[in-house]
Amino acid sequence: MKTYFLTGRKKMKMWGHRLERVVKTDPISFQVKVKFSNGSVGSIDLGPIFEKPKGLAAEILKGGIFNHCFVEAGALAWPNGFELCPDALWKWFKEERARDQQAA
Question: What pTM, to 2 d.p., does this model score?
């Protein structure tokens, strides 16, 4: 069953990909290894967000709390309130896995 939620005036579809837990973090390469609720496990490159950070992402680096990420309501979150949508993370995860398979 797909769930919908409203943001402003747009109705958006929530695909239901949720994170179950953070397995490992690497603050040097901005990689986070996570486990999704469907059992898939893999690393996600968060470099596009943290290499030129703004706002809450910049606070994470300034405070040295990249490794303090956790799962909250299925999303990847940090103590300063920054959260990443699990559906977006799932999309990045699938794209990275496809690139790795093509390179092999």
Answer: 0.79
